[in-house]
């Protein structure tokens, strides 16, 4: 995660956008630096929790080197957070999505892209419209 801070400090963006695994990196950077907006596309609470739900028979706690505990970082973000979700989420369990949403202290708004999955959300025509709307506010 230290590289996200190095990149942030080099470019000093005012808006950070993260998608899927990148939402954890974006949340981490936003928890360490002041920004104008944080936009999370298909976020999750932690890779560890996703792995536990998909592979309950494995000791994932001990297998995973990087647990990407986005839930810990998002609680420290001071700026407005916008979330874009897929209607048919086929990667991140609903429990993980609900958990992250309920732990965002500055959740400004969240959107659900109809007829989209985790993998094709960026290709959905509504995605660009919603992203433009967020960026204008």
From TrEMBL:
Q: At the top level of its lineage, which domain of life is listed?
A: Bacteria
Q: Which InterPro entries match?
A: AB_hydrolase_fold
| Protein name from the UniProt record | Serine aminopeptidase S33 domain-containing protein
